[in-house]
Amino acid sequence: MVTLDDLKTPEKNTWCPGCGNFGILMAFKKALIDLNIEREEAVLVSGIGCHGKMINSVNINGFHGIHGRVLPLAQGIKLANPNLTVVGFAGDADQYNEGWGHFAHAIRTNIDMTLIVHDNMVLGLTTGQATSTSQPGFKSKSTPFGVIPPMLNPLAHALVSNGTFVARGFSGDMLHLKGLIVEAIKHRGFAFIDVFQPCVTFNYLNTYDWFRQRVYKLEEAGHDVTDRKKALEKAFEWGDRIPIGIFYNKERPTYHDNLAHVKDEKLTKLPTKNVDITSTINEMM
Amino acid sequence: MITNKISLLVGGEAGAGITRSGFLFAKTCLRGGLYVFGANDYQSLIRGGHNFYTVRADAEMVYSQADTIDLLLALNKETILLHKQELVSGAGIIYDGDQITITDEELGRNNIKLYSVPLRKTVKELEGPPIMENTVALGAAIALLDYDPELLNEVLRDTFSPKTAELNIEAAKQGYNYTTEHYRNNFGYKLKKTASAGKHKIFLTGNEAIGLGALNAGCKLYAAYPMTPATPILHFLAPLDREYKMVVIQVENEIAAVNMVAGASFTGVRSMTATSGGGFCLMSEGLGMIGMTETSPVIVLVQRPGPSTGLPTYTAQGDLRFAIHASQGEFPRVVIAPGNVEECFCKTIEAFNLAEKFQIPAIIISDKYLAESNETAEPFDQHRIRIDRGQLITETEYTGKEEYKRHKFTENGISPRAIPGTKGAIVRTNADEHNELGYTTEDPALATKMADKRFKKLDALTKELENYETVKLYGPEEADATIIAWGSTKGPIREAMKILSNEDITVNYLQIVYLTPFPASKIQKIQQSAKKTIIVENNKTSQLSSLIQEHLLRTVDHKILKYDGRPFNPEALARSIKEVL
Question: Is some CB atom of chain B closer than 8 A to the CB atom of A257?
Answer without folding.
Answer: no
